[in-house]
Give the backbone structure.
Amino acid sequence: MRIEQTKVNQMNIKKDMKVSELMEEFENCGVLGSGRVARASDLLAAMINEEDMHIFMSMAGPQVPGGMRNIIAYMIKHEYINVLVTSGANITHDLLESFGGRHYRDFGDDDEKLNKAGIGRIADVYTQNDDFEIFETEINKIFDKLSKKLDNPKDKGIISINTLLHEIGLIIDDENSILHQAAIHNVDIFAPGIVDSMLGLQLWMFTQDHNLILDVVKDMHHFSDLVFESSEIGGIFLGGGVPKHYTMASTLLKGGLDAAIQITMDRPETGSLSGAPLEEAKSWSKAKCGSNLANVVGDATIIFPLIFAAALDKIQ
Amino acid sequence: MRIEQTKVNQMNIKKDMKVSELMEEFENCGVLGSGRVARASDLLAAMINEEDMHIFMSMAGPQVPGGMRNIIAYMIKHEYINVLVTSGANITHDLLESFGGRHYRDFGDDDEKLNKAGIGRIADVYTQNDDFEIFETEINKIFDKLSKKLDNPKDKGIISINTLLHEIGLIIDDENSILHQAAIHNVDIFAPGIVDSMLGLQLWMFTQDHNLILDVVKDMHHFSDLVFESSEIGGIFLGGGVPKHYTMASTLLKGGLDAAIQITMDRPETGSLSGAPLEEAKSWSKAKCGSNLANVVGDATIIFPLIFAAALDKIQ
Amino acid sequence: MRIEQTKVNQMNIKKDMKVSELMEEFENCGVLGSGRVARASDLLAAMINEEDMHIFMSMAGPQVPGGMRNIIAYMIKHEYINVLVTSGANITHDLLESFGGRHYRDFGDDDEKLNKAGIGRIADVYTQNDDFEIFETEINKIFDKLSKKLDNPKDKGIISINTLLHEIGLIIDDENSILHQAAIHNVDIFAPGIVDSMLGLQLWMFTQDHNLILDVVKDMHHFSDLVFESSEIGGIFLGGGVPKHYTMASTLLKGGLDAAIQITMDRPETGSLSGAPLEEAKSWSKAKCGSNLANVVGDATIIFPLIFAAALDKIQ
Amino acid sequence: MRIEQTKVNQMNIKKDMKVSELMEEFENCGVLGSGRVARASDLLAAMINEEDMHIFMSMAGPQVPGGMRNIIAYMIKHEYINVLVTSGANITHDLLESFGGRHYRDFGDDDEKLNKAGIGRIADVYTQNDDFEIFETEINKIFDKLSKKLDNPKDKGIISINTLLHEIGLIIDDENSILHQAAIHNVDIFAPGIVDSMLGLQLWMFTQDHNLILDVVKDMHHFSDLVFESSEIGGIFLGGGVPKHYTMASTLLKGGLDAAIQITMDRPETGSLSGAPLEEAKSWSKAKCGSNLANVVGDATIIFPLIFAAALDKIQ
């Protein structure tokens, strides 16, 4: 064993330190949490710098309510990613902000009191019913436009989720919106569990007296085309859930991911895919044998801004 | 403070102990993990015994591969639950066993070797490609039947996920199948993320040359009817994910859950709904103010059999 | 690969089920959490049945406040274990109950209110200042007796922790006391971090005006004798911390553990020994290569009563 | 409720970002993980800037093997902290590096192979037997010196752990050593569980034929003096275990901590003090009612360098 090359270097901290300098200390240390974070940051930069690699990003959990909206929109704007797979909730909260709503803090955790005050709680992030009422009005205006557009013999009112989100993104006039940036930069958004959200609820109510059919299988035709078009596929997995598996499973068509990073607090013990290390995907051909995979156990709203800020200094 | 009534009793263990006797020790102790487990078990029995309560159960994570299939089928057979919301994966694995496939163990965790041997890994549970090939053949036969049945001017090839699963369950001839038991006992199964599974993949391939449209919003019409028909609603949440939120959000139409138990290893810190304690649902009117809620931090494949076995001795 | 022998059996639950029958279902399933629990239960029974094996048990975390006191006392009374390594806190709480104090529940989590009411909180377990005042009076009476006994030219007031705990155990008149049962059954108790507890605090105050020196290194002489006397060494690890490592490291003198079970919620990512799987101990010769080791990720106050109750039916 | 002041601001990332700029984004966001990290960083700077506050730092888990040695030594050198409470293991590994040993990486996790190669594993950090042999030789030389120094009628060979560590620190000639920096800067180090380490093992073997008595209670006399001398007490808790409780409990003598930050992956469910939020300490008067407390759920080797680097830009 070549001991010389494998020493752990103690980390050093100084005033006025840049994020990328901190990351270099993590890299020189190279073990435990800091080692994992450094490898993920380095791999993120490498994936983005790789011309032939298309990056599919998945995002579960309350990333938009938790402050990650601009970071994701920035990544889309710079076309660092090609596909975003997320939950109906993150899309709902992206739209909520575009329609003038906000997320709030410092209201405590007495859920019965919050209920009476018309405030919905996501851990220590809060939403207001008033904002959801505006959301309801605005999203229904958009559904109405779309329904009319699809009311023709060719479409028969049928739309895929991906196209729905693209159409909404085109209508939204908000530079900071994930949906808007994706629409104008041709980044595809998928949300296979979209019905399970406020957006889904509004869709359901709209369809009670309008002809609008959300064909959930149709998305997969387009997604598979995107997979086949990609020479190499990189993955960014923030959290687990349906977005993680949907993203991962899509790559099966091309033998799996070539490289990927995962940041999640979920653990492998229960056997849930959310907590599975990326290596497990190799057995299923959802990651290639020999692929470059980096797992970080941590909170994505802390770890991803950190590794992305450091990666930016390496991106050409 | 009335100190007298609130003493912690030390637990006692003896030979030939019944599960319900162990649970009684947990209850008398009443604190930390054993206290939470005992409250959940007690509430489970109470919910099932309550004539006017309909129970909606959600199940995420690899519960079927992890050995929970017969327990769920038993609950359905005895009509202890009225609705089951789960993932496409659990449905796929239920069908895999009905079609003669199995789940395996003791193959180690070298994922590249497993890949070459045609074995897919879920932590320490394994599946074989051969079994999935049979799954593919058999499920396509069923799709074919259904497609023909729906090929008429009224249906136009459109089907809801719930109806699809009911139809499959009627065709499957397997006493141990969750889908089969649900179909013959009129227990409704929902799987809003169904496309994100092997079943979903087969559906997508089938629809490439057949007219079969999975209308994901359609389910919500039926689910909302089930909610309105329920005098009181109880919830059983094994794991989190889309099944948890979809189940919870449905109850919004009736002011939220009246009672519920949750068993998950997920934690609240990331703000993910999966790890949120049930109390948070009150702020959103997804659980009633004053509802009876029991949270257990633990692995569902250990904790649920334990609390259900103890609850059985109290069920009338 | 011999597929036949490695199938996962779905678990079955029935009314009036015995704990050992539930454990048999876990064993037949054999994967994920239930598989790990079954292997630990089986190994526990085997270790106790093995005549030539001495069992060293370590116990961290609030096991006595959390309801495990009688179970541990029972194990000592039946001489299922030979050594117990624990924290000063568990010993303090064992004595607290012997002196007439209790643990309480249902006081909520407003720590400032609890402080004013003289109530100390351990998650949802509570203690009262009044009980600690009695503890103080009683333990000082015991220290006084011991100090006089040690006031001779041979002892010079010096005592090891292990001997101190043995002497206290002989004085305590309480069948349910861990210390008392250990004293009368010649089970050795070690508590290397004893100063870090209410007992330690009282010791410190006592020594301000009495000659009593706690020689922390002296214990290791006796512990090493116990290790050398053991043909084979089994380990039971509830939680991690100093008790885990102290127990494990002692076995180094004889090439490490021959068999062991561990139950903890701690995880390996931070590199902390508390969360390390038992296998890691092999690299340090704290577990033998080829030793039989079972790790369970779970809450010891739930899992240990469960596996011990099932093991009892197998113990000869 | 004053909604205006409580909005969540979406985070922004840019090239060449300073760590303190990233922390400002976390602060403006203010919720979930990033909010907790920002509050801890801000409080750390405030505690260090507060002239009248003495800071007691506790450090459990493999912080020295994990790359934190220089950061802790830097904090001591700049007298940012006044007391350090840690494990025998961190002290052992600090000395190991001073004696020329190192920590290594990239050896895999086959513990039986590692054992045969003389390599001890701490997750993905490795140590070599050769380095421990040098440690043994060197530490025994130091024990010998100390034993001779204490061999007089006044000391009778008795020494407190704190004094032992101070004396070792004076002898060690290594700018990067935590023990050395502490010795020359009059920062006190306590290690109540010191026997539970390689250092403890060597101590035990040395005392078999030398007169050296480690009086574990003696430390508390000095520690209590340090507490009484402090106008205000701040706490930094990396990980839990004995170091956390010992540090916290010492402050009882002065009504508890005035301010503190905690970084740990441990959770409250098991009731273990390691996972308890700092607020719980208020009930025990180990933190003052009204004290300023910040908890972060995360890996200290990632989070502490991040918050300390950001805090440095605010320290006067």
User: Anything to note?
Assistant: Chain B touches chain C through 63 residues (CB under 8 Å). The mean pLDDT of chain B is 95.
